[in-house]
Design a protein that fits this description.
The complex is a heterodimer of chains A (about 625) and B (about 700). With about 625 residues, chain A is of the alpha+beta class. Chain A is built from 19 helices and 22 strands. In chain A, helix 3 runs antiparallel to helix 6 and helix 12 packs across helix 15.
């Protein structure tokens, strides 16, 4: 899907349009009718020069339940299901895959998991308000909050939505209609000053604040600590979603931290810019969330990770506001205080505004893919690409299992010619080139930049790939790979309808350990499943999703059929725990970008040493001595 | 200390073991040529075919591990790195195997002929082979056979070839290389050769360890993209060398450490260690070993020597049992014992001295594996007979000594009904059979055969060691058992020569008794401890047990740190068989247990006396300048003198194995020290301590007063 712009550069609007199409390409279909504009503009004392774009509609309403699932991933209108003919299809209109039949999915699904489309494990259809405990309110706080005029709610559904992230155990419980401790009140500040007020009141009345951004956490970070006796207030930043200014001279933008990735990109695109920060969750995750978890985007090779992108951060803490006094690109002023904020996971305060680097929209974008005879060769190629520092905007390597999975997700092809062409490709690779279909794997690529440069770059990468036995396998395969990134989370919900539970987790690891960690962690998952009585061999798969000078980020996926297990979630947790132990034993990190939350807390001391942990604790003790930000993540 | 807690051990009698199939049977009924040429297509680890020996070598030389050491050596010695590379390459040439199927087929043919003429049957547990087949597909496998004969590794390859399993690559000692043609043949059948010692040679170590590890890993051939298996299964002998005594030797740890390393460093998911127990009904090297132990120097392995061995072909060596045990996962061994993240901070190609936890893991695993080998050794009825006949022999000698103290070594000259009647022997054997089974022995006692038939067929197979005369059985110590091939004219022989001839038979016989020792070892230590303890107090008995166990831990396979477990196991077994009563505070021998306890103490008595004699020698005779090298000849001379003077009971004390082990124990306990005197390896004896150890062993001193403080 190469997109070429006019060479004038003056026609910014046109570039923006095309950029939109690109994003829509791997994200969602462009829509005509946007959801209701709920962002109130009552914030006072604000710099009111806003770009035109910022007044446009936003994705996330205050009442998330209007467009999103309460017990699964993403939009209510988008989901996989097996239709009456037993064929898989993806509903809705938002994605490229929407409304399509996926003929091979059923066989793959049943064959891989030993599942059966007639054996359903449906979710509880609606949540009953009675399942949610009545709120434990701090009356004085509520009264004071009321007087500020900042919108809030104690509605059961609103609270339920903010009580969880997307860990398997959280979603599994919701599907069973089980609700644990949830926030007692949800408040929607509209701007930095609103947050100041809320934090001040929270300190005064000793209530527990848990910041909530996009709700995409997979580290149990949003789970309310059961031992918390105070009233818990969820501070939902979703309405703080404006781009406050764009500075074209310095290529920066000042943005409210509640904005979600897709809105940020869309709005910047309209002005001809982008941040280039595209984590897989970018449809729903927020800028503040990225900052507090040290997020990473798939195009970090060009644009950098979140810590490379932020210039300035404003955070409201119980001790006051922390921010730097200038926007110098680099400071030698002791340890970077931004790094207390980056990855603090909501334990110190609320990030309210961020100044970010922006880039002009790329002139040209091109997908690509390379098939390797085996995973080992693929890794060797990625390593070489990293050594030569010529990684494209994104380069990802899927193992054989995912390659097959990707194939199973091919939508029904309309033309006979395409299917003939596919057959020919398969024949060429497996028969002519002698690739073993049970070993081959595929790398997906995304190039960005000036047209000439992209083409040159592309050649360089394909030349390297050829040295490792790699065969170029076309743009379509590449593009589909990235598209799947956005729908894979929906697939988990499909699995859960049929006794299959799944999770993904990530790590970062030095280059010399990549193959070892992939092999050992996958084998450990299989071993543990067997050991814990899982009846059917699990799906255990991985991919290398980011390359660095000295190592890579590796993503693992595992899923299994839980029929016959008395406590599937417990079994699942044991396996996940063992897999993490295996990662750490093989030189992998505790997390590359998901964060620690409460799920991985127990390994923090070993990870950063006792002294390191003490350093972090002392910061927490200084900034928040009364543990107002009491989500108990990280430490 | 052993608590009075309930001892919940799985009854050894209930140990489940597989059945055996005779693999020679088919060989006797079908063509050997066809067999040698048949299609061989073993299952492979992860379905990957192994690399060629040449690729393996290249991969070792190009490894970061070896390159790193080459760089280091070159920097430190100032030698050109090319030169060091040459050296590494030469080491590899000397070491590397060059396995090829053709040679294996040749061996398959020849060995079929040889085996059929030597052995009645070669019986293997096919279930074990099925386990092996499964394991080979899942993980790199390391085969760990027991080592009693030269035959062992050819036999192993022969079995794997027969069952269409991946042929192993075998670590062999350099001494084989002396046999020009055969050495090369073995190399082509998959042996690789390692020097017996290479102390500080970093380069050798690097090449060697990398060679072995490469065989356990999967590697990618760059630019072609093919994945290759290393060369697993790798096979080596934990005991390091053939046991001349048929007792398991204390395991050597170097190679085991190397093969466990790829797991610890995360290079493989797991490694399977598979103990294999090979038991010979009659060991080919029987009298050869006895001679070696007596100090007749070991003939250097030479091709011509091997052909001399042809005469062996005409003899009957009974059957062989090969038991492939349960695979042991290195991962499960290391679980909770080694934190693998300790290897995260140093590049893995830089050699690292194994830390304490790794050392102890390797050590414990090695003992565990050797014990697993022991447990699955098939015991023939003959080993029971040998035990009984030896005890009988000794008690008669004792009697003769006490009756006619002036005429030493005069037993047979007196001609007073020597030996034991067949009936009595049969009765005793049946008793011992039942006892050993209760202790978990893997006894191969023919069903549907009367005990007397079993006894007589055993005696007939081992007729070289026993004489049956007028219904009485005794050791054949008076026959001319000298090397029959020497053809020396029977003439006047010196008392010393006579003694040594007798000793050959006794030591041969002892090597069969030794096969059953591991079954009785713990109860026997306890029986001796009860005997030696100052009271029946449980703590005293335990102290005494602990002393003996510690003393003998170079002699027998006793896992370090398992004193309490061993004590409890021994108590459990002796209580179960009604020989002991163990209460909270007391250990008592029961009336009916006298026989068992006597049998057990008699079994260990030669060792007790042997260690005492070594102590006495060191105190009384050892000169200031005695070196480790001179120790064996000197102590042997001393023991011969004592034996001839009738001051010692057991001819088997002449075994250099026992003498070496005793010295090793004394060195370990610090009673003897190695110093750099006039000559390196000079032994410095702590007379006081050695004396007190001797007295404690002799029961003159009680443990709590003596050496126990050192335990």
């Amino acid at each position: 899907m190469a997109t070429n712009s006019g060479n004038g550069g003056s026609d910014r609007q046109r570039v923006a349009q095309q950029r939109l199409r690109i994003i829509a390409g791997h994200l969602r279909r462009p829509e005509d009718g946007n959801s209701a504009i709920l962002a109130a503009e009552e914030c006072k004392g604000h710099v009111s020069e806003k770009t035109d774009a910022s007044s446009e509609g936003k994705t996330v309403p205050r009442r998330r339940q209007e467009i999103m699932k309460w017990n699964g991933w993403g939009y209510s209108d988008s989901k996989f299901l097996f239709n009456k003919n037993g064929q898989a299809e993806f509903t809705g209109k938002r994605y490229r895959l929407s409304g399509m039949i996926i003929p091979a999915l059923k066989d793959w699904f049943e064959g891989t998991f030993g599942a059966n489309v007639h054996h359903k494990s449906p979710a509880t259809p609606i949540v009953t308000s009675s399942a949610v405990q009545p709120p434990n309110l701090n009356e004085a706080f509520v009264e004071a909050l009321k007087s500020t005029g900042i919108p809030f709610s104690i509605d059961a559904e609103d609270r339920l939505f903010r009580g969880h992230g997307h860990c398997l155990n959280e979603i599994f419980a919701l599907r069973e209609g089980k609700v644990g401790r949830v926030p007692d009140l949800v408040v929607w500040p509209n701007c930095h000053d609103d947050v100041l007020k809320i934090v001040e009141l929270a300190c005064k009345h000793n209530v527990c604040l848990i910041p909530y951004g996009g709700g995409t956490s997979v580290s149990s970070a949003l789970e309310c600590p059961p031992e918390e006796t105070r009233s818990i207030v969820s501070l939902d930043t979703s309405q703080m979603n404006r781009i406050l200014w764009i500075d074209e001279k310095n290529l920066t933008a000042h943005v409210e931290a509640g904005i979600v990735g897709q809105d940020l990109e869309r709005l910047l695109n309209e002005s001809g810019y982008c941040t280039g920060h595209e984590p897989d969750s970018m449809e729903f995750s927020s800028l503040g969330g990225w900052v507090s978890t040290r997020a990473s985007g798939m195009k970090k090779n060009v644009y950098g990770n979140i810590e490379d992108l932020v210039i300035h951060i404003k955070m409201v803490t119980p001790k006051g506001v922390i921010e730097k006094s200038c926007q110098g690109p680099r400071l030698s002023t002791g340890p970077d205080v931004h790094h207390f904020i980056l990855g603090s996971e909501g334990t110190l305060g609320v990030v309210t505004e961020v100044t970010m680097k922006i880039r002009p929209l790329p002139e040209y974008q091109k997908y690509g893919s390379v098939v390797f005879p085996n995973f080992e060769m693929g890794v060797a190629c990625l390593r070489e690409v990293a050594r030569q520092r010529c990684a494209p905007a994104s380069i990802r390597l899927m193992d054989n299992t995912q390659f097959k999975f990707g194939h199973a997700l091919k939508p029904q092809v309309s033309s006979l010619f395409t299917s003939f062409l596919d057959g020919l490709k398969t024949f060429y690779i497996t028969k002519f080139k002698g690739f073993d279909p049970n070993r081959l794997c595929v790398a997906t690529l995304l190039f960005e930049g000036g047209r000439e440069k992209v083409l040159q770059h592309e050649k360089q990468v394909y030349d390297i790939a050829a040295k490792f036995g790699g065969l170029a396998a076309g743009e379509d395969n590449g593009q589909r790979g990235y598209m799947l990134t956005f729908v894979i989370a929906y697939l988990r919900d499909l699995g859960m309808d049929y006794y299959v539970i799944a999770e993904s987790f990530e790590t970062s690891v030095p280059w010399d350990r990549v193959l070892d960690i992939c092999r050992n962690v996958k084998a450990r998952i299989v071993y543990e499943c067997k050991d814990k009585g899982v009846q059917f061999a699990p799906l255990s798969s991985c991919r290398v999703t980011q390359t660095y000078d000295s190592g890579a980020c590796v993503y693992f996926y595992f899923a299994f059929n839980y029929r016959g297990l008395s406590d599937p979630v417990h079994t699942f947790e044991q396996v996940e725990h063992a897999a993490r132990e295996e990662i750490l034993a093989n030189g992998g990190s505790l997390s590359h970008h998901h964060g620690v939350g409460k799920l991985r807390k127990k390994w923090m001391r070993d990870t950063v040493s006792t002294v390191g942990l003490g350093m972090l604790k002392s910061v927490k003790d200084y900034v928040d001595p009364d543990n107002i930000f009491g989500n108990r993540n990280l430490l | 200390m052993a608590s009075g807690g309930v001892y919940s051990r799985i009854d050894p009698m209930l140990k489940k073991r597989d059945d055996f199939e005779d693999m020679l049977e088919e060989r006797r009924n079908s063509s050997d040529v066809k067999y040698a040429l048949r299609c061989y297509s073993p299952v492979l680890y992860k379905g990957l075919s192994p690399c060629t020996p040449g690729e393996l070598k290249a991969s070792v030389l190009q490894s970061h591990q070896v390159l790193y050491i080459i760089g280091q050596v070159s920097r430190e010695t100032g030698r050109a790195s090319d030169e060091v590379v040459e050296e590494a390459s030469a080491i590899l040439e000397e070491m590397a195997h060059s396995q090829q199927l053709g040679t294996v087929r040749f061996f398959a043919f020849v060995l079929s002929k040889v085996f059929k003429s030597l052995f009645r049957s070669i019986r293997v547990n096919e279930e074990g082979l099925q386990r092996l087949q499964q394991t080979i597909q899942d993980h790199p496998v390391v085969l760990l056979p027991s080592h009693r004969s030269y035959m062992d590794f050819l036999l192993m390859s022969y079995i794997l070839y027969t069952y269409d399993l991946t042929l192993p690559v075998i670590a062999a000692g350099m001494d084989f290389m002396g046999m020009k043609v055969v050495g090369e043949m073995l190399r082509m059948s998959g042996a690789f050769f390692i020097r017996r010692s290479f102390g500080g040679d970093r380069l050798y170590w690097a090449v060697f360890s990398e060679y072995v590890k490469t065989m356990l890993r999967v590697r990618t051939i760059l630019f072609t993209g093919f994945l290759q298996n290393g060369f697993a299964p790798v096979e080596f002998f934990l005991e390091g060398t053939r046991s001349r005594t048929a007792k398991s030797l204390t395991p050597k740890l170097g190679l085991l450490n190397i093969v466990m390393d790829p797991y610890l460093k995360g290079e493989v998911f797991d490694i399977s260690l598979m103990p294999v127990s090979i038991s010979y009904e009659r060991i080919l090297e029987e009298s050869l070993y006895a001679r070696e132990l007596l100090g007749v120097p070991k003939p250097k392995e030479s091709t011509s020597g091997l052909f001399k061995a042809r005469k062996i072909l005409s003899e009957d060596y009974g059957s062989i049992h090969v038991y492939f045990g349960e695979p042991v996962s290195v991962r499960s061994l290391a679980e909770g014992r080694v934190d693998r993240s300790q290897f995260n901070l140093l590049p893995r190609h830089i050699p690292q001295r194994p830390g304490e936890e790794v050392v102890s893991l390797v050590n414990d695993s090695a003992y565990r594996l050797v014990r697993a080998q022991e447990e699955n050794m098939v015991l023939q009825p003959w080993v029971l007979l040998a035990s009984l006949l030896l005890q009988n022999h000794h008690s008669q000698q004792q009697k003769n000594h006490t009756e006619g103290a002036t005429h030493h070594h005069s037993t047979q000259e007196q001609g007073l009904n020597p030996g034991i009647t067949l009936e009595e022997l049969t009765a005793q054997t049946t008793w011992l059979r039942d006892l050993s089974r209760e202790y978990g022995a893997f006894l191969h006692w023919p069903e549907h055969t009367s005990p007397s038939d079993v006894v007589s067929s055993s005696l007939s197979l081992h007729r070289g060691l026993v004489s049956v005369c007028e219904g009485r059985v005794q050791l054949a110590t008076e026959q001319a058992v000298g090397d029959p091939s020497s053809g020396a004219p029977p003439g006047p022989v010196s008392p010393e020569e006579k003694l040594l001839n007798r000793a050959v038979v006794v030591l041969s016989c002892a090597s069969y008794r030794n096969q059953v020792l591991h079954v009785f070892l713990r109860p026997a230590l306890l029986a001796c401890a009860v005997h030696a303890a100052s009271s029946t107090n449980k703590q005293d008995v335990f102290n005494s047990f602990s002393f003996l166990r510690n003393m003998f831990s170079n002699e027998f396979i006793l896992c370090p740190g398992a004193t309490v477990q061993d004590f409890e196991e021994a108590c459990y077994l002796l209580v179960k068989t009604g020989a002991l009563q163990v209460s909270q505070h007391e250990v008592l021998v029961t009336e009916s247990g006298q026989r068992t306890v006597a049998f057990l103490t008699n079994m260990l008595d030669p060792f007790l006396q042997g260690y005492q004699v070594v102590c006495r020698f060191l105190c009384e005779e050892a000169s200031e300048s005695l070196t480790e090298k001179q120790f064996i000849p000197a102590v042997r001379k001393f023991i011969i003198k004592q034996l001839l003077a009738g001051r010692l009971r057991y001819t088997e004390l002449l075994s250099s194995d026992l003498q070496k082990n005793a010295l090793a124990a004394l060195l370990r306990l610090g009673a003897v020290r190695k110093i750099k005197g006039v000559q390196p390896g000079t032994l410095q004896v702590d007379n006081l301590m050695v004396n007190s150890l001797e007295d404690t062993l002799g029961g003159k001193l009680h443990t709590q007063k003596a050496a126990v403080a050192r335990l």
